[in-house]
Amino acid sequence: MVLLRDVLWAWLAATIFSGLPSTVYALVTGDDPLEATRAAGAMLIPAGSPLLQLLAASAVVHGAVSLFWALVLTLTLPRRRTLLWAIAAAALIALLDLGVIAPRLFPEVARLAFWPQFADHLVWGACVGATLAWRWRKRYCWKPTFRS
């Protein structure tokens, strides 16, 4: 049960904040801030689907993929330097997602600008790592006992 809570908290933090870099980048450069969201939705339904359907599909896809990787990291990250290891893992996941999987299976995602998406992955990893480090520190940290 504790492991499940760790995964869910890490997943929630990462899912909420991981899209910030690409969204801010799109707004600053005048690009469409929903382009990445539509591309994620197109992983599940046709790219030409109505916007609300693409948004819903995107939530499902992003949530499921994020949950999968949060579970993997929760099971494999060390208890020390968790944040650093999580960011490094997220960079590798980004290279796999954006450099291998997307070009072969998801052309809409492959067409997105690489660096903003890479930054999203790094923020995702930072959120997972920070959340797990916080939860694990609370649970496993040595606590002095005071005896009178």
Walk me through what this model shows.
The protein is mainly α and 148 residues long. It has one domain. Helices cover 77% and strands 0% of the residues. It is built from seven helices and no strands. Helix 1 crosses helix 4, helix 1 packs antiparallel against helix 7 and helix 5 runs antiparallel to helix 7. The model has no long low-confidence stretch (mean pLDDT 94).
Strand count, sense and barrel status of the largest sheet are: none
Order of helices and strands: HHHHHHH
Whole-number total of structural domains: 1
- The chain-level mean pLDDT equals 94
How would the global form be characterised? Answer: elongated
Name a few traits of the molecule.
single chain, 148 residues
Give a short overview.
This protein has 148 residues and is mostly helical. It contains 7 helices and no strands.
Could you give the topology of this structure?
Layout: H1 2-17, H2 20-29, H3 35-41, H4 51-76, H5 82-105, H6 107-110, H7 114-140
